[in-house]
């Protein structure tokens, strides 16, 4: 029967002691595992993209499970593994949050409307980035929500310039330039037309804008009311400017209409002066004889 055969009671006592120790160990692991789950951090999986323009405001809102109660919420800024807590809000003390970091940067721009919301006003480009909301619920559970904020500059007011203009008896050929000052890497430009024949209409999907955007158009002179609009936009803002093509073409065509008769008049005057000069020379020659 092995080494325990000589003293059976002692063998059984040793075996029972070992079994009891093993059972207690298993129970202890189960209790610890249960306790860790109860006080663990739960990622809600809610990742919210938010966009606004410089000078505007943004509202972060935490979505909580029905029937749960928030005891405390911490708002932070930064990447997943190295974010910085900005402030903490305790239940019942929404009007007096506890500042942790960045108080000088946010204090006069951050407001806590209620336990689940945070608003930042007078946004700057530097406010773009990832924000965290870590909520502590009743019972010790924690829930994280992530917000991705992008702050755009307001779209600058564009202007349309005439690069070149050419008039024929039937057509006005014009090249226009739409120019937007400032930062343009986030901007799109679209040209839209009004009053042009269908085959000459200009309209399309927005394209990336460099510092300027040019468009060539051949306008029939019998379309004096035609116009082109330059639309400059980003994800959150849009500005437009319109140029009346008829005015530019009419201005140049009037110039050509005036220039023709003027050249004829000047030519006649020059011819008369030449004739008078020749006559005067001839008269002096004959008179001298």
Automatic annotation (TrEMBL):
Localization of this protein: Membrane
Annotated TM spans: 264-286
Listed name of the protein: Ig-like domain-containing protein
Source organism superkingdom: Eukaryota
Chief place of localization: membrane
Source species: Equus asinus (Donkey)
Nucleotidyltransferase among keywords: no
Source lineage: Eukaryota, Metazoa, Chordata, Craniata, Vertebrata
Record SUPFAM superfamilies: Immunoglobulin (SSF48726)
Ig-like domain ranges (all copies): 158-242
Encoding gene per record: LOC123275681
Segment forming the signal sequence: 1-28
Transmembrane helix as UniProt keyword: yes
Record keywords, A-Z: Glycoprotein, Membrane, Signal, Transmembrane, Transmembrane helix
Gene Ontology CC: one annotated term: membrane
